[in-house]
Amino acid sequence: MKIEGDIRKMKTTLVNGVANYVLTLGDTDIPMNELLGKQISFQYTGAIFCVKCGAKTKTSFFQGFCYPCFTTAPEAEECVLRPELCQAQNGIARDMTFAQTHCLIPHYVYVADTGSVKVGVTRNTQIPTRWIDQGAMGAMVCAQTPNRFVAGQIEVMLKQHFSDKTNWRKMLMQQKSDTLLLQQTYESALNYIDSDFQSCAVYDSEIHYITYPGEVCDGKIQTVNFDKTPFFSGTLRGIKGQYLLFDSNIVLNIRKHGGCRVQCTV
Known about the structure:
Blueprint: E1 2-6, E2 11-15, E3 18-25, E4 28-31, E5 39-48, H1 67-72, H2 96-102, E6 107-113, E7 117-123, H3 129-133, E8 138-145, H4 148-159, H5 168-173, H6 179-192, E9 208-209, E10 222-223, E11 231-240, E12 243-246, E13 250-253, E14 260-265
Parallel strand pairs: 10-13
Antiparallel strand pairs: 1-14, 2-3, 3-4, 5-11, 5-14, 6-7, 6-8, 8-9, 11-12, 12-13
């Protein structure tokens, strides 16, 4: 079956503790978990269409936006990457209607094991989606805040002691969470939250475990870049984060190629 469409981030759910993935191309939903062990090919057409407005663009920004949308869309506002810069609580945002449902709602500050332990921020509505997208095998909530700005302030404190980045190569090679390290990091993080924010701290957090379908990489990883390799075919061995893992440790980062129009044969 050949399906053509523009790449978007895979939709994810957690089913009995296992991440379940769906890749949507055009009007077709492709259940990726069911394709493990099967041959899949991608043919990049050379065209990119903005994930926000749908306009054709020569170059994409921030995982699929055309430049005008990159500079105006609320989904690409600076506080998406740096929550501490959010100003929605002061009535300032690219789109206050968007901010009401994305910034001015409860947020969580968490620690997650994505191959090494990191800290992060997400909306309450994005759990466990955010953790799955990062390839987290275990996660614990450190704080619950009334909005994105406060969560960002706490994250800034914790970033002085812990990384906020995911080492994607480590993530793609690790099978299970280091429970002891995750628990120790969580306990340390609570101690680093300033007294002014202690009312947000969560002292009874449980570990949320996530298992990923198929295998992880077990050697040197090679990445597929459609600009350099417009056609790729391989046997799907696993899925983790927003990566498809193929035989010979070749991986395709779906999110990186947002907006790229491809023909997928399954």
